[in-house]
Amino acid sequence: MRELCVFLLGAASLLPAATTTHVQTFTPQAIHFLGAADYSDEDLANAAGLKVGESYTAADLTRHAQQLLDTGLFDKIAYKFDGNQLTYTVKMSAPGLLIAVDNLPIDGDAIDGRLRNQIPLYRGAVPPSGTLLEDVRLQLEQMLAAENVHAHVAAEVVQDPVTHHAATVNFRIDSNPVRIGTLKLEGVSDFLKPELERATTLSEVPFDTQHSAAEIEQSILAVYASHGFAAAEVHAARYGYPITDVGVIRVPYKVTVKEGRSYRLGTVKLAQGLPIDPAELDNLMAERTSFMPESGFLQYLVAQLEMRLKGQGCANCRITLVPQIDESKGVVNYTVGADLTPGSRQGAANPQGAGDGLQSLVKR
Predict the structure, then answer these.
(1) ∠ CA(260), CA(265), CA(269), 5° rounding?
(2) Mean pLDDT along residues 326-338
(3) What per-residue confidence (pLDDT) applies to 160?
(4) The pLDDT of residue 303 is above 80
(5) Cα distance between residue 335 and residue 352, in whole Å
(6) Which domains does the chain possess?
(7) How far apart are the two ends of the chain, measured CA to CA in Å?
(8) Nearest alpha-carbon partner for 213 in 308, 314, 306, 109
(9) CA 324, CA 26: separation in Å to the nearest integer?
(10) Any residues with CB less than 8 A from the CB of 123 and at least 6 apart, and which?
(11) pTM: predicted TM-score of the whole model, two decimal places
(12) 226 burial type by CB count under 10 A (0-12 exposed, 13-18 middle, 19+ buried)
C-alpha cells in the first residue's frame, strides 16, 4: 500500500513571528531525493511538478508529493524542509513489469528507445498501475498517430502462467481490428503470379507487431518450396502507412524475393522425437508419383502430417521443413519438424495452404 508520510518543516522556527498570521510558504533553493539512485533529482522534481526557487504552502508540498507517489514507482514518500533544501526520502516499489506490444503497427525494435526519450521516468519497465503506466500508454497512441493510425491503446497486466504473478504489461489496440494489409511483391517469376494472386481470405489474419513479417516470409517460402525453390530468400518489411478501411486497420508490407534455382524433391525424413510413426510417412511418400508436378506433393505431405499431429491434441502445431540441398544433383531433401509447445501460435504460417492463404494480400 502506498503511503505519504507526515513531512517535517525545519524552517518554521526561522520565520518571523509576523508571518504566523498568514499562510506559511516555503521556498526551496535545492531539491534532493534519497532512495532512488536510478533517477536524477531533476527527473523526480519534474515528475513531482516542483521547481527550485518557487514558493509552496504545506498543502502544495503534500499535493506535489502525492503527484510523485501516483506514478506507481514508490511505496512510501516522506519529506522535510530545512530552510534551504527540500529533501524527499522515498521507498521504491517492487521492480516494474516489462512491456509487450501486441498489434501496434510500430517498429517494435524502436519502441523502447522512443519511450525512454519521451518519458524521463521510464527505464524499460512500468508499474502495474499509476501515471507512469498511463504516460506510456498515451505515448504509444501518439506514436500510432504519427503512423496515421488513430486508435485507442489498452494496457493489460498479464500473469505468468506458472507462478500466477504479474509478469508483463501488454499494450494493444482495442478500438479497431488490426489485420495484415496488401503485399507488394518484388522478384516473383511470371509463372508464380497466378498462384500468388489468387483471391483468398488471408486479409483477415490478425497483425502482430513482432511476428507478422516472419509469418509472411515463411508463407511465401512455403509456396516456393512447393515448387522446388528450396534456396529462395524472402524478406518482408512494413511498407508505407497503415490504412483504415471500414474501421479495420490494415498494415501493408513489401516483400522482396530472390528465387534462386529450382531443385527436384529428394527424400523426406522426420526429426527425432516427432510423434509420428515413420511407417505413416513411408505410406505418404509412396503417393508422390501421382502428383504433377511432383513438387506439389510437398503441400499435401505437410497437410497430412499436420493433420496427424492435430489428431493427437496439438491443435496449434506448426510444421517446419528444414532443407538440405545437394547442389551437384540438383536435389533438395527435407527434415520435417514441428513446434509442439502449448503456446505455439494459432494460425502460424506453414506450407500447407500457403499458396492459397496468401493471395488476397498480394498486389503486383
Answers:
(1) 120
(2) 88
(3) 85
(4) yes
(5) 16
(6) 3-92 (3.10.20.310), 97-173 (3.10.20), 178-363 (3.10.20.310)
(7) 58
(8) 109
(9) 76
(10) 38, 96, 116
(11) 0.73
(12) buried
